[in-house]
Amino acid sequence: MSDLLKLSLEGHIATIQLNNPPANTWTLESLNLLQEMVDELNENPGVIALIIFSEEDRFFSAGADLKLFADVSPEQARPMAEAFGRAFETLTEFKGISIAAINGFALGGGLEVALACDLRVAERQALLGLPEASVGLLPCAGGTQNLMWLVGEAWTKRMILLGEKVDAEKACQIGLVEEVVEQGQACSMARELAEKVSQQSPDSVMASKKLIQMNRLSSRNRYAVERDLFLKLFKGQNQNEGVKAFLEKRSPEWRYE
Predict the structure, then answer these.
(1) Of 210 and 90, which is predicted with more confidence?
(2) For the chain, which terminal residue's Cβ has fewer other Cβ atoms within 10 angstroms, N or C?
(3) Is 81 exposed, middle or buried (0-12, 13-18, 19+ CB in 10 A)?
């Protein structure tokens, strides 16, 4: 099995370590692997909590490697977009409680994997954002939908449409994360929360989570629209200009027509 993600079990708590240094970018392989791991955990009756974390000094995850979206057609971009959707929607539907332990930059798909979790813990030096529009893209892995559930319309628009990034303190103030801890303590806090879950009846936890998330049932169609609009961007010129400008370390020259 690939070592891009490392799965381990301790008691009733599972952990998945993001392991694609230096920035823990997502690949088609790691996205498919995440889906497989969560499906596997759902079949394990002894697991009721899942922690996702990184041991990289600066990055929780920087999202997708933008080289994958340079000079590609909508159909060439589709497998990656659909893999993001499948993986993160599977994570959202994990039977127990999932917790993201954010220790650094969580950007794009790196923030979207955290948004797909039930709870988020951020270390004080963390920086969170969805900067896709700055490179001619949009968050296609639940970002436009899941962020709304947490922070409301205004901050969702600020983070996506204006490209604003927030530090851990601001993230906690607006409801994007539930706990802020000092550097090096995200995993221990996440485990503390997971231990609380393991003290509850697993049947009650699974049933209650399902009921709570019934409020999101209508969002399923919106996730599909999100991916469709993401792929539609590849028919224009700004998407490729944005990605190329980023890779070439220059400002993009947008076309308004």
Answers:
(1) 90
(2) C
(3) buried
